[in-house]
Amino acid sequence: MSDPAVEAAQRAWLSRGVPTKFAIVDLADAAREALKPIRERHQQVCIYAVGRVCKHDGHRWPCADALDAYSTEELNAMTQTQSAKAKE
Ligand SMILES: [Zn+2]
């Protein structure tokens, strides 16, 4: 599973070269905050006869920006939620 926020935090951590008072989880939270505007723009919508697409760019979901902004776990959860709604 990938998580862009954790990966960014790990890169930031390693670039410092020495331990700091910040934990990886703090850096991941900071990275998630930085990704927030991108995540708000790139969300899935389900269009009849087309399927799941990004509401921002219209590309098939998950779009390239969504892959960079959401963790695999989040993308899987979104897919399951959308599938459950479609069955209702
Ligand atoms: Zn998008």
SSE topology sketch:
Elements: H1 4-16, H2 24-41, E1 44-47, E2 51-54, H3 64-69, H4 72-87
Antiparallel strand pairs: 1-2
Helix pairs in contact: 1-2
The structure holds zinc ion.
Residues 42, 54, 56-57, 59, 63, 65-66 line the site of zinc ion.
Q: How many individual helices?
A: 4
Strand percentage lies at 5-15%
Helix content: 55-70%
Order of strands, main sheet, comes to 1-2
Number of domains: 1
Q: Summarize the helix and strand pattern as letters.
A: HHEEHH
Average pLDDT level: 85
Bound molecules: zinc ion
For the sheet with most strands, the description reads: 2 strands, antiparallel
* Poorly predicted tracts of residues: none
Strand-pairing-aware structural class = mainly alpha
Taking the alpha carbons of the first and last residues, their distance comes to 29 Å
Number of strand segments: 2
Q: What does the overall shape look like?
A: elongated
The value of Rg in angstroms is: 16 Å
Word description of this protein:
With 88 residues, the protein is mainly α. It has one domain (4-87). Helix content is 60%, strand content 9%. It has four helices and two strands. The chain has helices spanning 4-16, 24-41, 64-69, 72-87; strands at residues 44-47, 51-54. A two-stranded antiparallel sheet has the order 1-2. A hairpin with a 3-residue loop joins strand 1 (44-47) and strand 2. Helix 1 crosses helix 2. It is elongated, with a radius of gyration of 16 Å. The two termini are 29 Å apart.
How is this structure best summarized?
The chain has 88 residues and is mainly alpha-helical.
